[in-house]
Each structure stands twice: as C-alpha cells, then as structure tokens.
Amino acid sequence: MNDSIEDPDAPAPGSRRPGGRTARTRAAVRDAVLTGLAEHGYPSLTVEYVAERSGVHKTTLYRRWGGVEGMVADALDLAGEDSWTPPDTGSLAGDLRALAREVVEGFGDPARAAAPTAFVGAAFQSPRAADALHSFYAERFRRCEEVVSRAVDRGEAPATTDAGAVVRAVSAPLFLRLFVTREPVDGSLADQAADAALAAVAAGVYTRRTGAPVTGARNKD
C-alpha cells in the first residue's frame, strides 16, 4: 500500500480549503469512497477498503475522518464544491425540463447512479451522512433558484414566486419513484414533472406567503 500521498499534519476536513498534497489525499479518499459505495453499498464500506483503494494508511483515515461516516460525509462535501451550474435555455419551461432530465439521466443509468444512490441509502443509516446529503442538495437547489429568478425577470413567473419551492417540485416526483416506490423514470416523466411545476407557477401556487417557512430550512426541535 502506497502512503506517499498522505499529509499527517493536514487539518481536519472543513477547517480550510486544502491544496497540494492535502487536496490529493482528500480526492483519493473521495474516489475510493465513491467506488466502494458503488461496488458494495454503505453497510459494507470499510476503512480497510478505503485505505487499500486510496493508498492512504488507515491510521490517517481514522485520525482525519474518524471512520466511514466521516469519509462519506466529506465525500459529499467535496462533491458540493464543484462548479455545476443550472441550465439556461432561455425559458422557464426549457430550464425546468432540462433540470428534470438531468435527474433522470443521472439516476437512470445504473453505472452512474450506483454511488449517488448509495449516498441516499447512507443518509438513512448515518446522521452525519444525512446532514451532508441535506447540505449537498440545499446548495444544489440554491444554485437552481437562478432559473426562477431569470423567469421573473422575463415576466414568466410572479415576482413573489418561491424559487426554492419550484426547483424542489421538479425533482420531488422523480425522487419518489427512484427511491420510494422504485419505479422506472424516463424522459417523458421528466417532462411531465417539469410541466406540472410550470403550471403550478403560472397558477400562483408557489407564491410566497407572509409567515411561511423558508424553503429548505431544517426544523429544529
């Protein structure tokens, strides 16, 4: 096993944006976690597997990530640092359809869907993974709100439209089929979900109401 990419003095994930050897170590661990999730699922993912696959000694993995939960959470955090931007087709209808089709294309291909599906499964078994998954999608939806902002500027949606609610409404029926009822999804269902959200926008269903909770906020007991 190759320990050459280790950085024993590196800070814990999240304390600063790492670079150089620290970034390579984090990326290697992330890649190993993704592969392990795709091949074995969360319950069978082990520190030993990640150590062998990444070339990072398991003592370093325990010290920096604390175990499998921490590595899975950090892999999601790292995924959320990408440069993905929502589609810009020139119309709200086109943008919502493009967003819905991204969901279908991402989860419809078994090879591409294995790791992200395992992340969702991990969230049901690990509080840290659940928090990381929440943060990942909160950031994704935040970026998608630009789609609705542009639509308001073009006069395609009321100025008081809740952008977060709209973009969540597009993916919600698709995620229901993918992860709850385990039904197949395709392009026509993606378009249907987008068109339903678009009709709701036009009807004023997603207009913000005074005193309504902020979309995406987690309830705290």
Automatic annotation (TrEMBL):
Residues 23-83 form the HTH tetR-type domain. Keywords: DNA-binding, Transcription, Transcription regulation. Residues 1-25 are annotated as: Disordered. Residues 46-65 bind DNA. InterPro entries: Homeodomain-like_sf (IPR009057), HTH-type_TetR-like_transc_reg (IPR050109), HTH_TetR (IPR001647), Tet_transcr_reg_TetR-rel_C_sf (IPR036271), TetR_C (IPR011075). Transmembrane segments: none annotated. Residues 12-25 have a biased composition (Low complexity). Gene3D superfamilies: Homeodomain-like, Tetracycline Repressor, domain 2. This is TetR/AcrR family transcriptional regulator C-terminal ligand-binding domain-containing protein. It comes from Streptomyces omiyaensis.
